[in-house]
Amino acid sequence: MVEAFEQNLRITTNTGGRVLKSDFLDSIRGKYTVSNGLRVRQFAEDFKQITGTLKDFMETLNAIWALGYSFIEEKGVSMLRVEPVMWFFNPEYCVYECEEVFDYTETTAKDLLLNEFETGYEKYADNDLHTLLEFNTYRQYLLPFKHFKGKVTKKAKFITSGYMIEILRRIQFADKPKDSDSNDDSIFLFTMSDVNPLECERGEAFSFVFGEDDISSIYNARISPARMVLSWMPFLSSVCYHKSVEEQVKCQFYKQNGEFATQLKTESFLIVENQNFTVSRNKKFIPAIAEFKTPMFAKDYLRIRDSLLSRLGDEENNGYIQFFDRTGTVKTGWVMEMEYDAYRELASLTLLLRNADNVEQPTYDDENTPQPDAEYVWKLDFSELEEVKQLNKADYGEEFTVSGWSPNDPSELPQPTPPPSFSDYKNGITKGNALYTVTFTGVSTGKVALNTINVWWKASRVNN
User: Fold this and answer.
1) In a domain, 450, yes or no
2) Beta-strand (E) ranges in 99-174?
3) Residue 396 maps to a domain
4) Boundary residue ending a domain (223, 252, 278)
5) Could you tell me the CA-to-CA distances from 9 to 23, 47, 60, 106, 442 in Å, in that order?
6) Per-residue CA distances from 50 to 12, 39, 82 (Å)
7) Beta strands of 344-447 (E only): which ranges?
8) Most exposed: 90, 246, 250, 325, by fewest CB within 10 Å?
9) Considering the domain boundaries, does residue 360 fall inside one?
């Protein structure tokens, strides 16, 4: 597969020599191979040309392994650098420190606040009852956001469906030389065996397989849709920066065999195709954008550019920039856009904020930080009622329940307007205080106690 991708890249760019640099692809070189329907059907040699486009290759690599790319220069040679998306956010190296900033704005990166993630494959076998066990189909997941609507789809162009492979394999050219098939020109992706590199990987690489009648007949279980989501979880966890690690990316819909489960011999965990995924503590970026201008010498601008073009070496490439926001707080971020006015020696920067501590911070447990998708509402506060119940229990030695309110039910207390702000919530603002006489009745003895309490509306936050 990697060799076919390199050849496609050379043809597309009309370039000879080295055109690709990728530590990740080098690590899986020889593990995967591509073919087309004609080859699967063993057509004559003249008809075996693979016609997949560079776009199809890139979309498949991106969907399955969450790979991104950038154009780089190395010793004057232009190449494509392909690595996992999060590789392009180097958290260890600061390429520049801004001494002064102005025209500063900071906004939520709404393009990154997603509530739906769809992944899997565009084509698979689903035409009869015999294909119900097919697992390389597609999945839909919901992220823990309610007030933002955004969907990202990552579907692979290449076919990995074992049932579709077998269906096509049985339409051999020798048997039906005049027949054609709609998938003759489609690209198929095969995982190759570690035991015998000339054969496809089946069940031999797994310590556990569930949901398939014959594990010796499975294809491409290593790159199933659930495992594709696993590749994207470092990115999705950062998208969920303001969510706690108890939140989940939930499987909302799965096509066909969602019960299929596997565990590689090298793994200590089981992957089920319809499972949910827990948000990781490792959150590299914050879904927020900082924009500002800063004085900058040309040599510093060129160094930042070289870092973005991977000209400095992997330890210094894709570094972040440090700056001060309007309050004087030190922040950092990665360059999304950069313009430079050489005459004025002034740079205009757009940065994606970096999670400096690379930890789950802040979350909804952080009462001092506004959350971008939080909703603030007025809620009735009955804290004084609970205190009186505990006092009655201490005085009379039994539990008490509320059996009556006077002069009316607190639910009739008019709700304040407008809704509270984050500042109201942070400062514990209350409104609409009312005095009630409450009747308490003892659970054991039926003893009646009358107490006067205060009820009020308190600014509260809804965890979304």
Assistant:
1) yes
2) 102-108, 116-121, 138-142, 151-156
3) yes
4) 278
5) 17, 21, 15, 39, 81
6) 14, 9, 22
7) 346-354, 375-381, 400-406, 430-442
8) 246
9) no
Report d(CA 108, CA 399) in Å as an integer.
49
pLDDT per residue as tens digits for the range 431-455: 888 888 989 898 888 888 888 888 8
pLDDT band at 397 (very low <50, low <70, confident <90, very high): confident
Distances from the Cα of 441 to the Cα of 250, 379, 406, angstroms: 45, 26, 15
Parallel, antiparallel or unpaired: strands 285-295 and 346-354: antiparallel
pLDDT reported for residue 233: 94
Strand partners, 401: 441
The two structure tokens encoding residue 450: 């009358």
Please give the residue range of the domain that contains residue 216: 2-278
Q: Is the pLDDT of residue 67 over 90?
A: yes
Compute the distance between CA of residue 90 and CA of residue 95 in angstroms, rounded to an integer: 10
Residues 273 and 381 in one domain: no
User: By C-alpha distance, which of 384, 412, 386, 415 is closest to 400?
Assistant: 386
Tell me the range of 35-39, 140-144, 354-358, 368-372 where mean pLDDT is highest. 140-144
Q: Up-side HSE of residue 283: CA atoms within 13 Å toward CB?
A: 25
Residues 274 and 396 grouped into a single domain: no
Q: State residue 337's pLDDT score.
A: 95
Neighbouring-strand partners of residue 250: 142
Overall domain count for the chain:
2
DSSP 34: E
| Across 127-154, average pLDDT | 86
The pair of structure tokens assigned to 297 is: 């010498």
Q: Per the domain annotation, does 123 fall within a domain?
A: yes
Residue 12 CB partners (closer than 8 Å, separation 6+): 54
Statement to judge: residues 274 and 392 lie in one domain: no
| pLDDT value for 364 | 40
Report, as an integer, the average pLDDT of 273-300. 92
Tokens of 444: 């054991």
Cis peptide before 420 (omega within 30 of 0): no
In which band, very low, low, confident or very high, does the pLDDT at 373 lie, cut at 50, 70 and 90? Answer: low
Look up residue 449 and give its two tokens: 């106690």
Q: Distance between CA atoms of 357 and 409, rounded to whole angstroms?
A: 48
Residues 70 and 184 reside in one and the same domain: yes
pLDDT of 362 = 40
Per residue in 248-269, pLDDT tens? 999 999 998 899 999 999 988 8
d(CA 64, CA 49): 24
Which residue, of 234, 261, 278, is where some domain finishes? 278
CA quadruple 415, 420, 425, 426: dihedral sign = negative
Specify burial of residue 64 (Cβ count, 10 A radius: 0-12, 13-18, 19+): buried
